[in-house]
Design brief:
Radius of gyration: 21 Å
Number of strands: 9
Largest sheet: 9 strands, antiparallel
Order of helices and strands: HEHEEEEHEEHHEHE
CATH architecture of the largest domain: Roll
Shape: globular
CATH class of the largest domain: Mainly Beta
CATH topology of the largest domain: Pnp Oxidase, Chain A
Distance between the termini: 62 Å
CATH superfamily of the largest domain: Electron Transport, Fmn-binding Protein, Chain A
């Protein structure tokens, strides 16, 4: 075997090994089950609205997760450096206890989050609202970003194309909101079911 053939065989072997490693990593991510501790439910403080004093009727966290998963649009509220509020709509995913979303690095939202990572996001249906408050950071794990891209494209039936490449390379950010506090407000049963969840 000459040197050229040996080099080609070596490169082919390395590519196959990398391919197997990538497949194995994807399979591991697909199989892994991230255990996210359940938040603690309690009654929110909303004086004058006749809310029940007991814990009876509090919504289960699954009620909130169902709506976080089903929502197509999400409201996102950030704060400008001068203190003025900014509200916009984004597409997003509820994934392993966090909301993942993207926005251009130079968008108003991204600039606001660089200055102040505190953020509030809400589901689209105000009659069965889920409201999350927490801190936003940028996802750095490449395979998690790939997973975000796959799920995002499936949910919205839209190919990200060059944008996906920019996410993977780090040119454009993928953000995640890790909730610290959440509210579930169901209009039909508001007084008996209004719920606040605190995360550890």
């Amino acid at each position: 075997m000459d040197a050229t053939k040996a080099s080609v065989n070596l490169q082919s072997g390395l590519l196959r090994a990398k391919g197997r490693k990538r497949v194995a990593t994807k399979q591991a991510i697909a199989k892994r089950k991230v255990k996210v501790p359940l938040p603690k439910a309690s009654r929110p403080t909303i004086p004058g609205y006749g809310l029940a004093n007991s814990s009876r009727g509090l919504l289960p966290w699954k009620w909130a997760e169902n709506r976080l998963n089903r929502s197509r649009q999400y409201w996102i509220a950030t704060t400008r450096p001068d203190g003025r509020p900014h509200v916009m709509v984004v597409w997003a995913l509820w994934l392993d206890g966090a909301i993942y979303f993207s926005t251009g690095r130079e968008s108003r939202k991204a600039k606001n989050l660089r200055h102040n990572p505190r953020c509030t996001m809400c589901t689209e249906n105000a009659a069965e609202a889920v409201i999350l408050e927490g801190l936003v950071d940028a996802e750095r794990e490449i395979e998690r970003i790939r997973e975000f891209i796959r799920r995002y494209e499936k949910k919205y039936d839209w190919k990200l194309g060059k944008m996906a490449e920019d996410f993977i390379s780090g040119k454009e950010p993928v953000f995640r909101l890790r909730p610290q506090l959440a509210f579930g407000l169901w209009e039909k049963k508001f007084s008996s079911s209004a719920t606040r969840w605190r995360f550890a």
